[in-house]
Amino acid sequence: MDGNGRWAELQGKKRVKGHEEGAEVVKKITTYCSKNPDIERLTLYAFSTENWKRPRLEVEFLMKLLEKYLKNELTVYLENNVRFEPIGDIRAFSKSLQKTIKDVKEKTAHCDGLVQSLALNYGAQDEMIRAINKIKKCDEDITETMLSNALDCNHNVDLLIRTGGDHRLSNFLLWQSAYAELFFTDTLWPDFTTNDLEKIIKNFTKIERRFGGLK
Length: 215
Ligand code: IPE
Ligand code: MG
Prior knowledge:
The structure is a single chain. The protein is an alpha/beta fold. The protein has a single domain, classed as 3-Layer(aba) Sandwich (Undecaprenyl pyrophosphate synthetase), CATH 3.40.1180. It has seven helices and five strands, in the order H-H-E-H-E-H-E-H-H-E-E-H. Strands 1-3-2 form a three-stranded parallel sheet, with helices on both faces. A two-stranded parallel ribbon has the order 4-5. The model has no long low-confidence stretch (mean pLDDT 98). 3-methylbut-3-enyl trihydrogen diphosphate binds at residues 1-6, 47, 51, 62, 164.
């Protein structure tokens, strides 16, 4: 979800306004996905392990926004049968934010519709290191299955979308995206619509995926 800051600056507003607008788009896209039975899982990159490098005030704003978003969204998750499954190392967050994250996770655990994952203090390299540390004590050789199961997310990515014009993965789901179809759009995240998503999904379904095999 890239481009919040630029979206705000283009309108002469503070960067944080872009984050607020971005959170609204998260709601719309999540609701849309929850109504599409072909979409099992939606993972949104909300805060990376590298985002701590931003100015303190922006980081603080993002933390508050996240807490507000989660508290407000609980009823919407429940209404739409959405299960919330955070990924990332949330131990770095305040006790209160950790509690909110765990609370929404527990309260939506019974929902069996869309799984919405928010990547929170998430970095794929950090995820892999934490996974390796979890399994390194066993005597056997580590297998792909063992590592996959030890990751925060053990699902392969089918379709990966990056908004905001840059063509990079920025430490997002690197292991899980081994065979992901990558879509990049110049649209800034606050301008991204369900219509844009629909078009991308349409193009995605036309792709013949061979996973390294032959037709
Ligand atoms: C992405 O938008 C949102 C987060 C990382 C939380 P940016 O804040 O990176 O927006 P730009 O790239 O500066 O426009
Ligand atoms: Mg950015």
